[in-house]
Design goal:
single chain; mainly alpha; two-stranded antiparallel sheet; about 5% strand; about 220 residues; about 75% helix; Rhopdopsin 7-helix transmembrane proteins; disordered C terminus
């Protein structure tokens, strides 16, 4: 812990302050995206599902930043599990929005319980293993194995710009993952986690652009499965 950057604020040791700042930046960006979507289409169910995704990501990032900032005093694992739980709910609501935008009622009725089961299995695995790998597997299944192919299929069929930006934004999150894996740290006080957070703000902006265009607009019936 002594190798981590810290500041001493009135006797309190605050670890990795820039990590908290960049985490809070993600939270702030998500709050702006949620407000803009609410302002544009407050009652639309799809918009509500997309907004819930951003709310969950924003809260997860903010609490994640607190986990680092107060790691000297807090039980880091417990707070991390809270942030990971929020991410699981976010993926779930994004899956539901994707189903609603791309499939007819019969297919929705089949897929809904599948995603409910996935969410339950996620929480069981998360609280059993207390490991971030559970989060990674859930995101790979929900975002990359389901949402990206579906939205790209919609884009190729109907040239829907919103679908393209959603798929593009999710794919760009691989850049943040690469920064984490390679630990590309420009400076001790702005390390690979901070850089990845800044990249994440950009990828969420791309996803927001897609969800903003998708909310309240349905794919033509001939393109639905």
């Amino acid at each position: 812990m002594q190798d981590l950057p810290f500041i001493n604020f009135q006797g309190y040791v605050l670890l990795e302050p820039m990590n908290f700042v960049t985490d809070a930046l993600i939270g702030l960006a998500c709050a702006v995206y949620v407000f803009k979507m609410w302002q544009d289409n407050p009652k639309d169910l799809d918009s509500k599902l997309y907004r819930t995704f951003f709310i969950m990501v924003g809260l997860s990032s903010f609490f994640g930043g607190l986990t680092h900032l107060f790691a000297h005093y807090l039980d880091g694992i417990s707070l991390r599990v809270l942030t990971w739980s929020l991410l699981g709910v976010g993926v779930f609501t994004f899956e539901l929005a994707t189903v609603r935008k791309n499939f007819k009622k019969k297919v929705r009725q089949i897929l809904f319980p599948v995603f409910v089961f996935q969410l339950i299995a996620y929480f069981v695995a998360l609280y059993n293993y207390m490991n971030f790998n559970v989060v990674i597997v859930n995101m790979l299944l929900g975002l990359f194995a389901f949402i990206v192919p579906i939205e790209m299929s919609t884009f190729f069929k109907s040239k829907n710009r919103g679908a393209f930006f959603i798929a593009l934004g999710i794919t760009l999150t691989l850049g943040s993952a690469a920064i984490h894996i390679l630990q590309l740290s420009p400076h001790k006080w702005f390390d690979h986690k901070d850089l990845a957070h800044v990249v994440t703000v950009f990828t969420l902006l791309v996803i927001y652009k897609g969800t903003f265009e998708r909310a309240g607009k349905t794919v033509p019936a001939k393109n639905k499965s």
